[in-house]
Amino acid sequence: MSLKQAVFRWAAVGVAVALVLGLAPGQALAQSGGQTGSLDAQDISVLFNLVMGMAVLVFILVEGLLLFAIIRYRRRSHDEMPEQIHGNNRLEIGWTVGSAVLVVILFFLTLGFYQVPRTLSEDDALTIEVIGNTWFWEFYYPETGVRTTAEFNVPAGRPVVLEIISRDVQHSFWLPELAGKVDAIPGRVQRMWFQVDEQKVFVGQCAEYCGREHYNMPIRLNVLPEDEYAAWMDTAAAAVVAAQEVDLEAEAAAIEGNVAAGEALYNGLGCIACHSLDGTAGVGPSYEGLGARAGEMLEGYSAAEYVRESILNPCAFVVEGFSCVMPQNYGDQLSPQDLADLVAFTLAQ
Ligand code: HEC
Ligand SMILES: [Cu+2]
User: Fold this and answer.
1) By C-alpha distance, which of 100, 85, 91 is closest to 62?
2) Degrees (nearest 5) of the Cα angle 171, 178, 225?
3) CA 188 – CA 236 distance, rounded (Å)
């Protein structure tokens, strides 16, 4: 190899390494697995480290012997003919029996971990429904009716049961540090449970490619001290009760909407991810010209009624050429004033 070729080759290696390092996301560290988040994850992590340790020893042994043989018995001159060997029975029996023994050891170790009770007494467990949507995670606390998206809270020191379902396509719920990756499958309830004893934040994401905005399905779990959790839950539950008491649609109809406030909500609530203002169709229709056409979309609905209905019950009427993927729970998040502001803003387009 000429000097030029050698320089070129090392430059190529350098570029490749730089590219790999540059692509590695900063968050990858926070999401690396094998750590001990929950009780369950601790067992799994011990087993993982054992298997890893054995594999490392075998690796060092095999690669070491290989390197030794390559260097020690390399060809030293062109006319040298090494001694020819045809197998070695003792060696072959040795490494067959050796690896069989390792597999048997691993089998019994794994068996031991399987026998640790994986069920829990559900008396004091907190049950949360986890719902995969295109493209966000929704968390529903059935006892109180509280709903959150992307982020959820649980108390420290209490077992938590997740009932994982999907509203549309297959997703996968994954918090690496809790060591559980559970698919969210339409029509099926998948369960997982965990318990974390100290205040901690876990991050994860959808781990099943589920369409255009799959990358945008982060999960954030906040494990809070018991009293902080209770305080949060009280406030959230009170908001649910208050929301049930108002007839959102009727109250919004009676309020004057503010276009600028509506625009802020359009950005803040993520409508902008699916609806453009300039006529480009995205996941949802562009708002361009909505003010002019909204009155004709649905028989018997005024423009404002049509928009309110579109926001509160997106799937009751689906605009031609689109499918029903708009989040269904805006009704839980909006005050009558918010709704009126959004109507004013969209109809001004
Ligand atoms: C995940 C994507 C998505 C998000 C986020 C979303 N929408 Fe939609 N939206 C759609 C789709 C798809 C349709 C068309 C299908 C249908 O009617 O359900 C639609 C339809 C509409 C319509 C009827 C439009 C028309 O041209 O007739 C309105 C109004 C609307 N959305 C308002 C909103 C508002 C306000 C928000 C934010 C608070 C929002 N959307 C957030 C996807 C989305
Ligand atoms: Cu997904």
Assistant:
1) 91
2) 115
3) 28
| Higher local confidence (pLDDT), 32 or 288 | 288
Tokens 């594999």 locate to 55
Ligand 1 and 257: CB distance under 6 A: no
Q: What is the pLDDT of residue 28?
A: 46
Pairing of strands 126-133, 160-166: parallel
Q: Give 5-33 pLDDT, tens digit per residue.
A: 888 889 998 998 888 877 765 544 455 54
In this model, does residue 130 exceed pLDDT 90? yes
Please indicate whether residue 159, judged by its CB atom, sits closer than 6 Å to ligand 1: no
The answer to whether the CB of 283 is under 6 A from ligand 1 is yes
Q: Which atom of ligand 1 is nearest to the CA of 287?
A: 26
Query: Measured from the CA of 294, which atom of ligand 1 is nearest?
Result: 27
Check if 66 has its Cβ closer than 6 Å to any atom of ligand 1. no
Q: How far away, in angstroms, is 237 Cα from ligand 1 center? A: 27
Q: Is 284 in the pocket of ligand 1 (CB under 6 A)?
A: yes
pTM: 0.52
Which ligand has the shortest distance to the CA of 294?
A: 1
pLDDT tens column, 142-196? 988 888 888 999 999 888 889 999 988 999 999 888 867 899 999 899 888 888 8
Mean pLDDT for 302-307 is: 91
Binned at pLDDT 50, 70 and 90, residue 197 comes out as: confident
Using a 6 Å cutoff on CB, does residue 206 contact ligand 1?
A: no
Q: Into which CATH architecture does domain 126-245 fall?
A: Sandwich (2.60)
Residue 335 clears pLDDT 90, i.e. is over it:
no
Domain 248-347 indexed as CATH 3.30.379.10: no
Domain range list for the chain: 16-76+88-115, 126-245, 248-347
Q: Whose CA is nearest to atom 22 of ligand 1?
A: 310
pLDDT at 66 over 90: yes
CATH for 16-76+88-115?
1.10.287.90
Round to whole Å and give the CA distance between 220 and 151.
5
Residues forming beta bridges with residue 270, ordered by sequence position: none
Is residue 179 within 8 Å of 44, Cβ to Cβ? Answer: yes
